[in-house]
């Protein structure tokens, strides 16, 4: 199974907000194709075959599916069920667990604007961040991306924390399995990324998302504005509602966007900017966004990066005398802090314009 055949999705004529899309003041075709993505079977015993398929996907867009990943339907369904329960709470209850300085907790509607040049409003989504739980007696608990999570009141949402911790653990296991294939696809030892200084104590974040509304790119209104992810690997579980789009050529004068359809039992995976940097630009971190059609949409992305002190520098197999490193070496924590600060500045600039 390597994905369905490409086919055109005719945009509903009654949905005027979706019938005309505009990117950088140019109207896109109102017929948007589904993207043809590679599907990787994590149960395949031939790791080198899977690594070759993965490499093809990472050279093309950095987006692909994984199946037979081992996260049961029961675990996934429970996570979505509990996510919906949280977002259905009254606003005052959700605001009790507002995101803190450790990037843990609730983020309200319009809280982010990843593409301020093309967005006139913040993203039409609310979210909830859950990171790796690091207790106070851990010597590294005060590092920027470690620490304690913020949890809803267990009397209000019994079993919520346990459900999310179980999903977090399962998602991290899948990311480590994908990292082995990534290593092999880059001519490295399979356990290259699983070393103590890399994914031994990773920075990993589960995020619950709830979307509402109708997008209109011609008016700068998006479920999520166009962006690429900061880190190494992102997993994405969805409720089946269409919305995710990718653009394989971000520098094109007229950007071509393609829908990424959901496949029952499969998880969407994409590489982030850190992986592109590690591979010296060989592997792709692709621009993506969410376009809403009026249906309520839930998704659960999971982001993984190496530990704080890991040095992100060109991998030995991705450089040569004729292909020198394109990016300077940087510590993982410094890189992520820099990207978060850039994002905060964009949002502050956007708010100042409104005022």
Automatic annotation (TrEMBL):
Taxonomic superkingdom: Eukaryota
Pfam family, one: DIOX_N
Transmembrane segments: none
Keyword Oxidoreductase: yes
Residues of the Fe2OG dioxygenase domain: 202-306
Keyword terms, alphabetized: Iron, Metal-binding, Oxidoreductase
Keyword Oxidoreductase annotated: yes
UniProt record similarity statement: Belongs to the iron/ascorbate-dependent oxidoreductase family.
Name of this chain's protein: Fe2OG dioxygenase domain-containing protein
Organism per entry: Brassica cretica (Mustard)
Taxonomic lineage: Eukaryota, Viridiplantae, Streptophyta, Embryophyta, Tracheophyta
């Amino acid at each position: 199974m390597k994905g369905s055949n490409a086919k055109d999705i005719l945009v509903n004529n009654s949905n005027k907000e979706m019938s005309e899309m505009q990117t950088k003041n140019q109207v896109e075709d109102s017929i948007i194709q589904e993207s043809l993505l590679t599907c990787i079977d994590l149960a395949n015993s031939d790791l080198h075959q899977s690594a070759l398929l993965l490499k093809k996907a990472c050279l093309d867009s950095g987006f692909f599916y994984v199946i037979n990943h081992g996260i049961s339907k029961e675990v996934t369904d429970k996570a979505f069920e509990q996510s919906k329960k949280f977002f259905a709470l009254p606003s005052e209850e959700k605001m009790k667990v507002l995101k803190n300085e450790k990037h843990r907790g609730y983020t309200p509607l319009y809280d982010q604007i990843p593409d301020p040049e093309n967005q006139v409003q913040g993203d039409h989504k609310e979210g909830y961040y859950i990171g790796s739980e690091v207790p106070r007696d851990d010597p590294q608990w005060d590092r920027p991306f470690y620490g304690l999570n913020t949890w809803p009141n267990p009397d209000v949402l019994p079993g919520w924390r346990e459900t999310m911790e179980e999903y977090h653990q399962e998602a991290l296991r899948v990311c480590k399995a994908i990292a082995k294939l990534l290593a092999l696809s880059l001519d490295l030892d399979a356990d290259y990324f699983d070393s103590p200084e890399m994914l031994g104590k990773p920075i990993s974040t589960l995020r619950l998302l709830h979307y509402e509304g109708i997008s209109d790119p011609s008016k700068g209104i998006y479920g999520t504005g166009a962006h690429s992810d900061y880190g190494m690997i992102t997993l994405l579980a969805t409720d089946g509602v269409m919305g995710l789009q990718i653009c394989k050529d971000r520098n094109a004068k007229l950007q071509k966007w393609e829908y990424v359809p959901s496949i029952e039992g499969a998880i969407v995976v994409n590489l982030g900017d850190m992986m592109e940097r590690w591979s010296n630009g060989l592997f792709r971190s692709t621009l993506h966004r969410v376009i809403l059609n009026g249906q309520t949409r839930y998704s659960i992305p999971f982001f993984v990066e190496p530990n704080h002190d890991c040095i992100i520098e060109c991998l030995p197999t991705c450089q040569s005398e004729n292909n020198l490193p394109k990016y300077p070496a940087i510590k993982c924590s410094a890189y992520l802090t820099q990207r978060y600060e850039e994002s905060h500045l964009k949002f502050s600039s956007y708010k100042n314009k409104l005022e």
